[in-house]
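Following up on my earlier thread - several people asked me to post the actual chain instead of describing it. Fair enough. Here it is, all 806 residues.
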Amino acid sequence: MIQNYIKIAWRNILKTKGYSTINIIGLAIGLACSLLIVIYVKNELSYDKYHLNKDRIYRIVHGYKDVSSTEQHQIWGNAPIGDALQADFPEVEKVVQFSGQTSILLKQGDKRFQEENVFFMDSTAFDVFSWQILAGDPHKALKNPYSVVLTESTAKKYFGDQNPIGKTLEGGLAAGRADAGLYTVTAVIADVPANSHFTFDALLSMSTFRKARPEVFGKEGWDYVDFYTYFLASKDFDISKFDQKIPDFLKRHIPTAENTSSRYNFHLEPMLQAYMHSSADRQPGSTGSYQNLYIFTIIGAFILLIACVNFMNLATSRSMERAKEVGVRKTIGASKSNLILQFMSESLLLVFISSILAIGLVIAFLPFLGAFSGKHLNYSSLQDGTTWTIFILTTLFTGLLAASYPALVLANFKPIKILKGSYSNSKRGTLLRRGLVVLQFCLSIALIAGTVIVFSQMNQLQQQDLGFNKEQRLVIDYNFDEKVNQNLEAIKSTLAKDKDVLSVTASRTVPGTFFPNAGTEIMSANGTMAPFAPFLYEVDIDFIPNIGLKMVAGRAYSRDFPADTLHSLVINESAAKLWGYTDPKDIIGKQFRQWGREGTVIGVVKDFNYLSLHRKIEPLALRLDPGSSRYLTVNIQHVNQPATIARIGKIWNELVPSRPFLYSFLDDNFNRQYEADFNFRGLFSAFSGLALFIACLGLLGLVTYTAQQRTKEIGVRKVLGASIYNLVVMLSSDFIKLLVIALLIATPLSWVAMNKWLNNFAYHIEPQWWMFAFAGFTAVVIALITVSFQTLKAARANPVDSLRDE
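Reply from S.P.:
Thanks for posting it. Predicted structure:
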């Protein structure tokens, strides 16, 4: 019987090629999308799971309170806590610390590269983390000063296919963490897996850092922030019991009540939560978004549901064509269970064919998913057993869901009514099909509206007035080179002589790059010296006018006031409010103390978005300290830009032959903060488009069948004088009504969902009525285009052909 069922199923597929093709393609796209989303979600959830001791690795989250009792949590913290943990807690087996990400110019012969993704790291790194060693002794690799561990790709960049162990690289100044010197290659490791919450291209020995700055590792270093602290816990480690010991630990090592109770604290975070669950600031790498995973999972479910609805709609709408077959089978003794099994077999055969096609689509489009998402997704993802288990279960579930209702409907036909010719489509069945169409387009309209909102928000990010000028600013990165900073004014003056250069400034930071905090005391509105730690920009005297910051009180730094170099400070409006001044003019002339300097506040700049628009503008101090600079920002004219850059590069190579001409544009630096958001936009739009395409496939099949069922009615109407326009409106109007109902249902649902997504941005748009109207209009237009061909074909048919047998 099974063989007979399969044979009949295959004959029906060949007999109704159009409907079968629509069903197969719709289901294939739905299954392919679900598999692609499974691969993406699984990749996001796989971060750091390759470490052998992943469940036993924890890291320190530092908490800092200011005088307002506001506590900020960040992963970046002090160094002394590492040795103290190791000494006080036997359950802490190994501690590994590494610096904030640094950049260093490395040279080997005539090869020189500024390596941006580098850390100073303890020699215990390979006792805690499970990076694959290709050459060298992992236990000794980072022990001695001026040792370096290279990843495989970095080693090939400098040494080709030679064995790099024992060879040296000339290293420049490492951002104040170490002096220039020769680094000996002590080990080579495989490239760090992409699904790591932090990656690197080279590791420098922490002993090099200790040699250059021994004071920050001692008892006085609890206030110095430049380190990430991780540790390997014992197998019986209990984090709740450990948390109870933290207060006593702080009292032993930081005895002042101010530090223990009101200023500094810490807690633990499992490493496996670092990528997806951590909300702390100053992460060593990128973090993911659980909300985005939920969104894509829901979209995948929507797409699969729409495909199932197509299948059920087409199968039940065509039930009359199979009615006589059911009547005959029941008359000759076929039971209800036999019929259900037969029709389930037919449906499952279609699902099986769809699943094969879906696998082909996944293989074809997996690289595009990687490009859209910005993730390293390759075909190795298809070798995972869990992925295939999920796909097979999803396919079976989809097949049973899509096939069960049509099979039950067909099996319940009454043979007497069928064979008398009195059986017709029930109102119940018609209402169900219409309900399923509404569901399809409700989901589709919600996704279209979501896409419009996502695009509008991303456009807002790019068009928002940030409060500074980021256009036509060429940023030269010289990585704190001492020779450049010693000759800064001469270099700036030479560059400014170019006919297309408007101004030049130097700074440690530009918007979109790293900046530190600075412990700062300013006389508050109540007359006391209040300590806070605002963010810090270390700038030169030309920075404020160069990037177009506006003064709202006082003045900017000026060469006319020599005291500005040591005794003046400029802050932003948010910093003035932090110290209690609602009117920024009132803070002018107030005393300040910051990192060894004392003087008065001379100016307040208008708040500008130096952070991404995910965050509100934070208090900022702009400290005049050109000797700490890393970047030159050159304001150039738009005319003949490539030629201007070429001339600036030539001047740079003449002035600073020891450093490569590394440049970028300020707007690119700033927009890099939104890379994950742009990836999200691409994925969301692609999957929304596919959902709409599948819905339209089902609509096409349904309209085609409806037109065939009403062939005689159309013929009669044409004979009685109905125009083609009248007939097209008649055939389309029912579906348009369903789309309007879908719009009314989808609008509030998508409004609530997208508002939650928009709340991730401190500065975001408000969903407007026209966005939902546009979504509905788009769905209607696409649906009309979808049905127009078939309705026109039916309306233009010769009525003689349809009425000949009457």
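The mean pLDDT is 85. That should answer part of your original question.
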